[in-house]
Amino acid sequence: MRHLLDTRTLAKDNALLILDTAVDMAATQQREVKKLPTLRGKTVVNLFYEDSTRTRISFEAAAKRLSADVINFSAKGSSVSKGESLKDTAQTLQAIGADGVVIRHPASGAPERLARSGWIDAGVLNAGDGTHEHPTQALLDAFTMRRRLFTNADGSDASRGRDLDGISVVIVGDLAHSRVARSNLWLLTALGANVTFVAPETLQPYGARDWPVTVRHDLDEAIAKDQPDVVMMLRIQSERMHAAYFPNEREYSRHWGLGDARLGALPERTLVMHPGPMNRGLEISSAAADSPRSTVLEQVANGVSVRMASLYLLLSGERASERSSND
Question: Which residues of 139-151 are buried (b: 16+ CB within 10 A; e: fewer)?
Fold first, then answer.
């Protein structure tokens, strides 16, 4: 692969390649010495125009465990805050010899612009762009689902090569502003899962009814009718809201939050997921977040393995000779 920009155009074979490679990466993280020499001599730049401690640290850990040199670039306090353009920043990174750029940007499409521009030869990995996509979050979510849902009799991992055909996934919350929901929809659908969006109409994404998704407004109805294997709760992104999308937090929690009663109503097999950070008591109760069926901390740990796999597949070998359907 040359770039990883979205999951909408990510071929199923490439998605499974990343997930299966992540299985191997996860195995290396159980060793006493976790570092691999795979990307020794490569330089990875974390180019973050938005704050995100969780995602940046995960990418940094992934690159360092592959022995890459890592440069963390924050827009705050840099020339960007003085008006430097993305083009000028990209050309600076080209001049210092960046092999890979992990970019998080508030503008939808910025990673694709960087990848297609010709300003830089580096492989580009989208770490979240506006309300567009967040592909590695969807990949780590799918990786977590596979590991939890497919195990051998002795409890060992049986996920390699498996898709998610027939799995029911209910995604609940601030869908309108969620790049995580969009990336999950496209990836999970490609892997064969059935996806349901649950939110008040004001928080449903524009055009969602033209997507391969079931749209519901009632969480209790979704639990009863869809019998989900996975319920994924999303954070209310109040920083992106400039209008009253729901009456108040108490009303939202009552209708769309995963509280203790709804947790008890879920099928016994159902996994509870959340990409973080969580608003406990709003979209998810502490009992749900901390229950044995919760995968919240596993998602964080699995994120390192998935991002190691992504960086490895993008940056190992000669990128100039590699092209993919996601180029």
Answer: bbbbbbbbbbbee
| pLDDT for 324 | 43
Shared domain check, 139 and 280:
yes
Q: Could you tell me if residue 326 is inside a domain?
A: no
- Residue 164 to residue 145: CA distance in whole angstroms: 8
Tokens 């125009």 sit on residue? 49
- Give 289's pLDDT tier (boundaries 50, 70, 90): very high
Q: Where are the beta strands (DSSP E) in 75-122?
A: 100-105
* Cα–Cα distance measured from residue 50 to residue 106, given in angstroms and rounded to the nearest whole number: 6
State pLDDT tens for residues 26-77. Answer: 999 888 999 999 999 999 999 999 888 889 999 999 999 999 999 998 876 5
**CATH label of the domain that carries residue 277:** 3.40.50.1370
Strand 230-233 to 271-273 pairing: parallel
At 151-183, the pLDDT tens digits run 998 988 999 999 999 999 999 999 998 999 999
**How far is residue 302's CA from residue 29's CA, in Å, rounded to a whole number?**
10
Go through 154-185 and write b for each residue having 16 or more CB atoms within 10 A of its CB, e for each that does not: eeeeebeebbbeebbbbbbbbbbbbbbbbbbb
Cα separation, 267 vs 226, whole angstroms: 10
Q: Same domain for 22 and 94? A: yes
Contact 90, 47 (CB under 8 A): no
What pTM, to 2 d.p., does this model score? 0.93
